[in-house]
Design a protein that fits this description.
- The protein is an alpha/beta fold.
- A six-stranded parallel sheet has the order 2-1-3-4-5-13, sandwiched between helices.
- Strand 1, helix 3 and strand 2 form a beta-alpha-beta unit.
- Helix 1 crosses helix 4.
């Protein structure tokens, strides 16, 4: 039986409208919201507005989806914390948007409860909920669900990347933790996977730990990675930095100290080349990254700086859009009474040729999740099983052949 949290009085008060204007400042211009005049408006929450991955996702929604479906997207500003997310949600609610797709995770429970109270659909973009959170919210009427890498897949992505370099014979590493200080779940799990891969060597531990799950707990507790906690007779962890505080002297020093240590590889939880590419120019330091398939990253791989990329392909957010719009149109996909919780993973390239094949296969003008592939699942009689089977075929071989 579905749990319904009906909207409470006062949501559209003058105070909420004022918050709407500030919480979504600069986000409702024509260039940001896609095609004008769409019947459905979807608010998009983002904690990252500048990375190549985030920009690729945005281009897909604004330049392809909004041009091919009767929908508008309104993007939030870059949201740094839970309070900013709440303010943006208040803005979306006050402006009577029909749905929210969220790429911001500082406080998902509050976002989900706000959407349920307001009676607007809410979906997680390229992500997942923890098992406990899913159990809490899966029966909410307006919670569409999540499609994207599960936290187990995120952990595996970090593990696979570190393992690749271990198998190449590399022994000295640095880590760029990206959103770890914000306890961004996918980045925490990716870094834990990296450390767990190194800890498979008998003498290697992180904080005395070898198990990935235990390492996840330590990262959440500390909010950082401390190289002094890394112990190994074989590998070295030569430095760590995180976040995107480019103007902060401490951040600049941490990056400079890591580069000066000259590790074999900087393992990045995201945006690795975009952040560290210039800093490692002229050195032999490689970058392994979990990011996006962009022209800049292709050039970096051609140059030999970026030597491993696990990337979400640009149109990976097509299915969650389809599920969200279908819910708005009165045809939600439910697993019984429960919201979606479907997994998708990454496409991996370790050479420029592999990278180019992926770029060519999924473009804004001709995405793998195009109108023809999504339309059968929007406002139709397609079943949950039909949709789950569609989503499960996400590999390069499945979608491209």
């Amino acid at each position: 039986m579905r749990i319904t949290r009906k909207a409470t009085a006062g949501i559209a008060t003058a105070a909420a409208v004022a918050l709407a204007l500030t919480g979504c400042s600069g986000a409702a211009s024509g260039s940001e919201s896609g095609s004008a005049g769409g019947d459905v408006t979807i608010g998009v929450l983002v904690s990252d507005a500048t990375s190549s991955e985030a920009l690729g996702f945005k281009d897909y929604y604004l330049d392809y989806i909004a041009e091919n479906f009767d929908v508008n997207f309104v993007y939030s500003d870059e949201l740094a914390d839970a309070e900013a997310e709440k303010s943006a949600m208040e803005g979306f609610i006050a402006n009577n948007y029909q749905a929210v797709i969220s790429f911001a995770s500082a406080d998902r429970p509050t976002q989900i409860d706000m959407a349920e109270d307001a009676g607007i659909y809410y979906a997680v973009g390229t992500g997942t909920l923890s098992a406990d959170d899913y159990d809490t919210y899966k029966d909410y009427e307006y919670y569409v669900g999540a499609i994207g890498p599960s936290l187990e897949i995120e952990q595996q992505a970090g593990y696979d990347m570190a393992k690749y370099y271990v198998e190449q014979g590399d022994t000295s590493f640095g880590i760029f933790g990206a959103g770890v200080p914000y306890r961004l779940d996918m980045h925490v799990y990716r870094v834990a996977g990296m450390l767990a891969a190194l800890a498979e060597e008998p003498s290697t531990t992180y904080g005395g730990l070898k198990d990935a799950g235990a390492i996840v707990g330590k990262i959440y507790q500390d909010g950082t990675i401390n190289p002094a906690d890394f112990s190994s007779d074989v590998y070295s962890l030569d430095g760590y930095f995180a976040a995107w505080d480019f103007g902060d002297p401490a951040w600049q020093a941490a990056q400079a100290n890591l580069v000066a240590a000259d590790p074999d590889v900087i393992l990045a939880a995201g945006t690795g080349f975009a952040v560290a590419g210039a800093a490692v120019a002229g050195t032999d330091i490689q970058i392994g990254d979990i990011d996006a398939y962009t022209e800049d990253n292709l050039k970096a791989m051609e140059a030999g700086t970026l030597t491993y990329l696990a990337g979400k392909f640009t149109s990976i957010n097509g299915p969650i859009f389809a599920a969200t719009l279908s819910a708005v149109e009165g045809k939600p996909f439910r697993d019984g009474d429960s919201a979606l919780a479907l997994a998708q993973g990454y496409w991996v390239a370790t050479s420029a040729d592999e990278f180019q094949q992926i770029l060519d296969a999924d473009t804004i003008d001709a995405p793998v999740y195009d109108k023809a592939s999504l339309e059968p699942f929007i406002g139709t009689d397609a079943t949950y099983e039909d949709f789950a089977d569609f989503v499960s075929k996400y590999t390069f071989a499945d979608l491209v052949g």
